[in-house]
Amino acid sequence: MNALAVFVRTVGAANRVIGLTLAWLALACVLVCFAVVVQRYAFRVSYLWIQDLYVWLAGAMFTGVAGFALLRDDHVRVDIFYRPAPVRRKALIDLFGVLVFLLPFVYVVASYGWTPVSRSWRLSEGSSNIGGMPGLFVLKTFILVFAVVVGMQGLAMAARSILVLAGKEHLLPETLRYRTEETAK
Questions:
Q1: By C-alpha distance, which of 48, 50, 44 is closest to 29?
Q2: Cβ(77)–Cβ(144) below 8 Å
Q3: Residue 93, number of CB atoms within 10 A of its CB
Q4: Which of 5, 20, 44, 91 could be cross-linked to 171 through a Cys-Cys bond (beta carbons 3.0 to 4.6 Å apart)?
């Protein structure tokens, strides 16, 4: 059980670092988009690679922070039954959801994403736009990054559920435990 708690803490810490780091790409997106607008309307010039850049930054950010969003429970959830449920029922729901829905989804993304990503690396693929950004293969790699960070966080959720069902939730820090009605206030 201690190994499960260490796993949950390690994956949570990794996704927190990745998420907080890649979240800064949102600021970069805004600044690059602002630069595109200023160039276009103030100087009547446009560089296609800069337009590619803010779209690519957004793609990297959203795929890279998905595990962090799952850690924080920020994904959309129909929680009319989940929110008021006791902690053990939440753990059962999460364990079921991870095993039946999340992990198979991650497997499909990784298995279907592997071929285009590896082909992109082999070809050193760039933007399909003339004058666009080089290095599209780096952006495509974030498909696999998404699968890894979400898959690892899903496994950490399953491990947390197992700890709760075994009565060992106290092995986790407060920030990684289930929120109840009392702690949500």
A1: 50
A2: no
A3: 16
A4: 5
Tokens of 143: 């498909």
Residue 48: count of CB within 10 angstroms of its CB? 14
What is the Cα Rg of the chain in Å?
20
Tens digit of each residue's pLDDT (9 = 90 or more) over 25-73: 999 999 999 999 999 999 999 899 998 998 999 999 999 999 999 999 8
Q: Which of 150, 76, 72, 138 is nearest to 109 (CA)?
A: 150
User: Residue 140: which residues within 8 A CB-CB, separation 6 or more?
Assistant: 113, 116, 117, 120, 125
- Give the list of residues 6+ apart from residue 22 with CB closer than 8 angstroms, or none: 60, 61, 64, 65, 68
pTM over 0.85: yes
Nearest one of 184, 80, 86, 150 to 174, comparing CA atoms: 184
Measured between alpha carbons, how far is residue 119 from residues 56, 123, 175 in Å? 19, 6, 41
The C-alpha angle with vertex 83 and arms to 77 and 86, in degrees rounded to 5, equals 135
Where helices occur in 43-135 by DSSP H, the ranges are: 48-64, 66-71, 87-97, 103-123
Q: What's the DSSP call for residue 52?
A: H
